[in-house]
Amino acid sequence: MNTMKRIAVVSSTALLGLSVFVVACDKSAGAAAGAVGSPAGAPPVGAASVDATNYKLELKPEASYAAGKEGTFQIIVKTKGEYHVNDEFPSKFKVLESANVTYAQAKIEKLKDASAFALTKCSKDSKDSCTMVLTVKFTPAKGATKVGGELSFGVCNKDSCLIEKKSLDSDIKVN
């Protein structure tokens, strides 16, 4: 029996300029792929968090930053219900360009920068991960600024996977 996952695009829908892809993940040959609907309301571009039906996505900055000194913020994906983070999906983060911020990397890709992505198993005995944390390094200049970017990631249940692309940003305090 083939133990590799088959991935097939089930549908693609454009809604208000946002693309949502529903993907089926299947470990057994010939199993039916079920489609899962996308979250009802699309979040505003640049939200500090997205609370969808199957996951919660958050941008967590530190309390404050010093001008000219490297700092970090985290992008956190926590799945809900029967969903888990798709460990095999090539997650990536493209930073928000800002005049007051210099990022260590403009694009962080899980396949190339695995150490930037931390996965936490759903339980001690689980093979699936329910939380993914991405740590983004940057150096801010003095003054008001925003940090953030766009995360591409996947969450799955036993029947299907959702491939998501969401933008997050947050104002930060720089001393």
How is this structure best described in words?
By secondary structure, this protein is an all-beta fold. The chain has no helices and 13 strands. The protein has strands at residues 6-15, 18-26, 49-51, 55-61, 71-79, 84-85, 92-95, 101-103, 107-109, 117-121, 129-140, 145-156, 161-172. The strands form two sheets. Strands 1, 2, 6, 7, 9, 12 and 13 form a seven-stranded antiparallel sheet that branches. Strand 1 (6-15) and strand 2 (18-26) form a beta hairpin. The N and C termini lie far apart (59 Å). The model is unreliable at 1-46 (pLDDT under 50).
Would you identify the regions where 5 or more consecutive residues have pLDDT less than 50? 1-46
Number of helices: 0
Q: Main beta sheet, described? A: 7 strands, antiparallel
Order of helices and strands: EEEEEEEEEEEEE
Overall pLDDT: 78
